[in-house]
Please model this.
Amino acid sequence: MTVNSFSFSRFVDVTLPKVVIAPTALACLVGFYGFIGWTAWLSFTNSHMLPHYEWAGFVQYVELFGNDRWWQAMWNLGVFGSLFILICLALGLFTAVLLDQKIRAEGALRTIYLYPMALSFIVTGTAWKWILNPGLGIEKLLHDWGFTGATFDWIINPHYAIYTVVIAGVWQSTGFVMALFLAGLRGIDDSIIKAAQIDGASLPVIYTRIIIPSLRPVFLSVFMILAHIAVKSFDLVMALTGGGPGFATDLPSIFMYQHGFTRGQLGLGAASAMMMLFTAAAVVMPFLYSELMRDRRG
Amino acid sequence: MADSYRQTTQAKLARMGIYAMLFLLALWFLAPLYVMLTTSFKSLDDIRSGNLLSLPQSFSLDAWKTAWDSACTGVECGGMKSYFGNSLKMMIPAVLISTLLGSLNGYVLSMWRFKGSDAFFMALLIGTFLPFQVVILPMAQVLGMLGLENSTGRLVLVHVIYGLQFTTLFFRNYYVTVPSDLVKAARIDGAGFFLFFFKILLPISIPTIMVCLIWQTTQIWNDFLFGVVFSSGDGQPITVALNNLVNTSTGVKQYNVDMAAAIIAALPTLLVYIVGGKFFVRGLTAGAVKG
Amino acid sequence: MGALSIRKVKKSYGDTHILKGIDLEIENGQFLILVGPSGCGKSTLLNMIAGLDDITSGEIYIADRLVNNLSPKDRDIAMVFQSYALYPNMTVRRNIAFGLEIRKVPKIEQDEIINRVAKTLQMEHLLDRKPAQLSGGQRQRVAMGRALARNPALFLFDEPLSNLDAKLRVEMRTEIKLLHQRLGTTIVYVTHDQIEAMTLGERIAVMKEGEVRQFGTPQQLYDLPSDLYVAGFIGSPSMNFIPCVLGEADGVGVVTLNNGKDQLISLGQISDIQRPFVGKPVILGIRPEQLTDPASAHSDHPNMQILTAMVTITEPTGPDTLVTVNINGVKTVARCHPRAAGVPGQSVQLSLDPTKALLFDPVSEKRLA
Ligand SMILES: Nc1ncnc2c1ncn2[C@@H]1O[C@H](COP(=O)(O)OP(=O)(O)OP(=O)(O)O)[C@@H](O)[C@H]1O
Ligand SMILES: [Mg+2]
Model:
């Protein structure tokens, strides 16, 4: 009988996985949670060009909430976000349903609908900036087509500029929404549809009463993703309008970037970053919560 | 008879309607690409005399040449080429490192679970929802403290850290579908942690590796926020350079050069999309539906 | 020499106790079966023997060597999994060679071993295929081949046949038994199929809820189950449990069975353990094969008891017909000759072998022996 000895390979079995995961754990702990804490701390200081770490209370938040530009940015986010989400959802679902009708060139069409997703928002913004420019863009096209009185100057019009962001955003993201819905449609049990057909339901009825309601989880995750894209969207606006004209297309992300990095208002930038986090959390939490509940039940 | 005839013509009309709508949608998605391409081959005069949809009068590559090696991005006037190189130099290591780490993490989180590993995975998952604005200020401080001046190095580090949650997720979600008996069998055969990973698990994860590589490539190549915040001067990635080029307000606006530059910036990811479309879509859906 | 010895082994995850103190011991060359319902901890115990799971407390010895702190590869074991767990990216040959390579067996020797194993299991023609190109039965064979190649002190099988169809399962069962007899290997084999357990095992441990209810030879388990659970688990169709009250007449135990009218049945000599139960409710356990039509009964026994009962349903199995009757308010199955089975509604005579009848305490569920 051998003695109960310490075994090296057994020690390795237990320790190695933890060693392997350690760098990521560190990155996650510091890079996410540590930095969130750090940003939160900065938002309670009087930092301007350089970070100071003396507690200054809520001054930055007071300043932020008294700042018209911030509220303009939040309002813009609300307008852009809700239109962007709504149109993407509707158009994406519509396209997916059309594509689900045993279309002959489905593969090619899908490729066409989805390619914008492979582009950088900067590229998308650049392209639409050119297409929408009032001198030589769509306006000129309309004139050439005979609508000589037509004006299409949304991109430089403070009242309409935000809608150009919506147009470009929808153009880029609809294909993606379509892909998610199409995957959802393909995942539906065929026999349910067959049973409904045998019951004599027409195609529109089958879609509105059976198929689309059963896509509820897809709706939920698509909504989450679009909301997330909207909250952090930055590059699209930077390339398309630069936040202008004036602050007509300013967004919290741009506000944060400019105060935190180009205007030497670290504290205010940090406070606006925290507000962005809360906005994202307000949208994401219900989703995560329902996922957790589902995990617990299942 | 007449009834069924009516029904079939009706069905035919409906199908024609569907195809017409799909065709219009395709036009709407393709139009900007068409405009970008034709504009990039036009001369400035051509642009002024024609319109968005008109074809180039004479096919010219001048705008492309300018965009590639002499267009001004702010004060510099060296075109996109060095920025294209910058993006490649940061993308390749960042993609490879984050994919390798992600696969190892996924392996541990699915087959070598330990107390707290599920909680860690949850913590990582939440990271996928973070708006990065909330971490960039401290990150800039830390990079400054570390004395990491090189833009490429900074961007590689940042992209690895903030790409890990996605790459880990991809691999973890694949590896939980691999029967756990496989790792048990290998342990009894005497294969240790790494031997099993490299000899058995990696060879069967090629599709997931593709998904991950493509996802990371497009994410990192297309990134703008990290680029604009953490890089400077001639170390900037191509997205930042493109934005500078387009928003440089000196001289006559050269739309043809802008478009050529935009296409240059888009080409790598478009190519990846065309070659690996299947994996690209899978990555999008997987990255989206989170588990 | 002890091949495997398990002493007071416990396993808990937090507050859930999966194994509650297991003691088992087998000799070299023995075939041990762990059998029990799903979730009773069979796989957990096997994984702990293999070193794939930690032990909460207790000791495990393989070939007289304490292995608690040894990693799986140092325990001199091989394992066959329910899902086969073949490496999908490797050919059959490489699957078998993998463990040998890691143990640095010289190449020439590897080839010899692979050829020998392939021959033993008649799978020479499969060696260059990938697992995806094999049928279920073939994968099973390869999984066994991979275990055999290593020639370990102990083989572990976790429900290796449960993914096969019924016919193949019977074939492979015979093959495993032959292999064991020919090679004299020591095997621990997990199953939840009691027929597999009875046909293969030399020692059977019947487990339930993390405990070993009985550990013995197949015949011991069949003839003298220690409690109601084991009695019901072993044998198919399972043992009839008839509630009745124990009586005593001249030192002989008697019970009353009722099917329309009371019929007094005398069992064997009453034992000291049974005596306190006289006048109290007990459970009479009688296997269907010991309740049969008088002509089929082994009537050399002088004391065969006869009772009459009305048939409620008959289920022909071919050689026999299972006849269900109602005794003391419970459904009772008898195994009769097809011609003596009667039809529903008809009365038949059944003879009962009193020496095979068992009595159980309805409270503790233990057999009263
Ligand atoms: N990691 C774990 N944490 C908590 N409980 C576990 C864990 N692994 C297994 N169990 C529990 O341990 C019990 C025994 O599981 P085990 O797999 O050993 O059963 P089994 O007898 O092999 O069943 P089966 O016939 O279905 O294979 C089950 O109730 C299971 O839920
Ligand atoms: Mg099991």
